[in-house]
Design a protein that fits this description.
Order of helices and strands of chain B: HEEEEEEEE
Distance between the termini of chain B: 52 Å
Largest sheet of chain A: 4 strands, antiparallel
Structural class of chain A: mainly beta
Number of strands of chain B: 8
Radius of gyration of chain A: 20 Å
Distance between the termini of chain A: 32 Å
Order of helices and strands of chain A: HEEEEEEEE
Strand order of the largest sheet of chain B: 1-8-3-6
Helix content of chain B: 10-25%
Largest interface: A-B, 32 and 32 residues
Structural class of chain B: alpha+beta
Oligomer: heterodimer
Helix content of chain A: 10-25%
Radius of gyration of chain B: 25 Å
Chain lengths: 146, 157
Amino acid sequence: MRRAAVVLVAVMMCAGYSFGQSNGVPQWKVVKEGHISGGTGAINPTVLFTPAKDGFYRVSLYALTSGPFQNSVFFNFVVSWTNRADGLGLAELDECLGGLCFQDQNVIQVFAPKVGTPVSFAVITSDPPPQDSTYDTVFTVEELTH
Amino acid sequence: MKYSKRILEACMRKIVILIAVVMCAGVTSFGQNGLPQWRVIKELHRSDQNTGDIGPDILFTPVKNGVYRASLYMSATSTEQQNAAWTIILDWTDETGLGGYLSTGAPLNTGRGFGMVGPSIFSPQVGKPVRVYILNSDPPPQNATYNFVMTIEQLTH
């Protein structure tokens, strides 16, 4: 039994080490992830989570659009929140389908949302929307956590 | 004596079970929430180098679609001010087939300089290499050295 206890403690220490938690420093951990392949239309604001306590988060948002050349049309990818000063916070990618514009972008941003207010994701399209066009997008939200 | 040994064994058993439960809870809370996590899959660093025009060296060649996050940092110092620099470049073929790159450099016009870029997300095409290289300016830096570090994370289960 004593030997079993020793082995168990050793395994526990190894597990703790391999998960990076032995140094006592907070780590970024993905708490929300979403991805869409071959998307074509708008997505209404969708609540990802509502923080129950103060904390720091990091959003990583990537999007790629493809379609024929079109003037003044775009897809807009947005993660939004209310910051602690009651202001609107945004991590946003504007991807147009015209000539000199970006169709492959990313944004990475640290934010501190207000407790009890939602953090949301949405895809907005221009009016008129892009035609015969698709998008791929992926986002993660990491929390700085012990 | 025999009785107390039995009590000791019973206590020991409870402690072992408790440790096992704590360990399971710990493993669950340490990134096992079923969501993919960003994990460093490549790291490269060099210190006190003075050789430029290195590469391109292949870091990896993706075998399936995925998203990655790259961070680069470079610094250089010299005993003299000069119009020269080193540049580090990470390049890949995007999933669209277009070329993609990320670069930063360390200029020596004040005798020391640094640059950083990222983290920045990219999605390389399957089967096409992700490469790194270091370029000298023309003319190349003299009496100078550089340091750099880069990491590439993959969003993975």
